[in-house]
Amino acid sequence: MFSEVHFHWGKKTGEGSESLVDGCSYSAEMHAVFWKKEYGSKKEALKYRDGLALVAYFLEVKDENPALQRLLDKIEDVIVPNNPVQISPFMLEKLTPPFRRKYVTYEGSMSIPPCLQVVTWFVRLKPLHISLEQLKQFRLLEYEDGKPITMNFRPTQPLHGRIVSYKD
Length: 168
Ligand SMILES: [Zn+2]
Description:
Elements: E1 2-9, E2 28-35, H1 42-45, E3 52-61, H2 66-72, H3 75-78, H4 92-95, E4 103-108, E5 119-130, H5 132-138, E6 165-167
The protein binds zinc ion (ZN).
Zinc ion binds near residues 8 and 31.
């Protein structure tokens, strides 16, 4: 079941993604989070190793991403935490295009505390686009203390013997 889409970004172009490809990072990363339906709720799913699936998309600074703009049009109304806004419904596929090839998958953890080891990751290797203007809009968002959110990505973690598989 779909839970949410969220984003990680950095202070400057070329940093911000949580995953690295051959040691290189992208300027932002989008995560679509899903929980396993048979567990009944996301809260319950968090108790199981296969509770969540997280689909990661890199965002590379290039052309404007029209699907992303639907969210960014409302970003000025968010700015501070816990400020809900309404966005007219749209097909999730527009934002998170499906893929069957060229991705890596591994069993890992959530990248935010409590970092539970309950996530099956799917990282699409081909990046989506984001314009520099769009990226800058993310950097306008603020923490509760009014400081701008300019770095909300977790540094890469040791492998801990995990098996990372590549699907060509
Ligand atoms: Zn994330």
